[in-house]
Amino acid sequence: MSSAPFMDLAAFESAAPEAVAALRALSRQAVEAGLDKALVELLKVRASQVNGCAFCLKLHTNWARQAGAAQAKLDLLPAWRDSPLFDARERAALRWVEALSAPGDHAGVAAARAGLEETFDRAEIVQLAIATAAINAWNRIAGPLGFPHG
């Protein structure tokens, strides 16, 4: 079995340019609507950890740093529940992204949404859902197609 990637981002974009354009537009939506870029990138990193997508994990970890996310938060992201570094908004959003990244956990989604309503308004919750859907889509494309992360 070859260790070479099946496809890289450029090949995927060549094969499906309209899909890439749509995914990129969807991926920008939450920040363009006003959500904090560092928070959105933190959520994309967490979803990529949950989904095991090395390409997206590397990309969004770098983008999170560029957006101002603290390295300590990135280091402790897998254990966010146990760290005082994460504030109430981050905790609610991380709970939401994890619930939406675990298909079929309807009770978890409902509980996570209830927690969001304490710290985010309805429009922000919609944007968080869109950001999560976008990164989950990318995770489910980049991982299975073997996009290299080097």
Keyword list:
0% strand; mainly alpha; AhpD-like; 150 residues
Following the backbone from N to C, one meets helices and strands in this order, namely: HHHHHHHH
Q: Give the number of domains.
A: 1
Q: What structural class should be given to the helix and strand makeup?
A: mainly alpha
Strand content: under 5%
Spans of at least 5 consecutive residues whose pLDDT stays below 50 are none
CATH class: Mainly Alpha
Helical content class: over 70%
| Biggest sheet architecture | none
Mean pLDDT metric: 93
- Supply the number of helical segments: 8
Gap from first CA to last CA: 20 Å
CATH superfamily: AhpD-like
CATH topology grouping? AhpD-like
- The CATH architecture classification is Up-down Bundle
Shape: globular
The total beta strand count reads: 0
Q: C-alpha Rg, in Å? A: 15 Å
Give the secondary structure arrangement, pairings included.
Blueprint: H1 9-15, H2 17-32, H3 37-51, H4 54-66, H5 71-76, H6 88-100, H7 106-116, H8 122-145
Structure write-up:
The protein has 150 residues and is mainly α. The protein has a single domain (17-140), classed as Up-down Bundle (AhpD-like), CATH 1.20.1290.10. Helix content is 70%, strand content 0%. The protein has helices spanning 9-15, 17-32, 37-51, 54-66, 71-76, 88-100, 106-116, 122-145. The protein is globular, with a radius of gyration of 15 Å. The two termini are 20 Å apart. The model has no long low-confidence stretch (mean pLDDT 93).
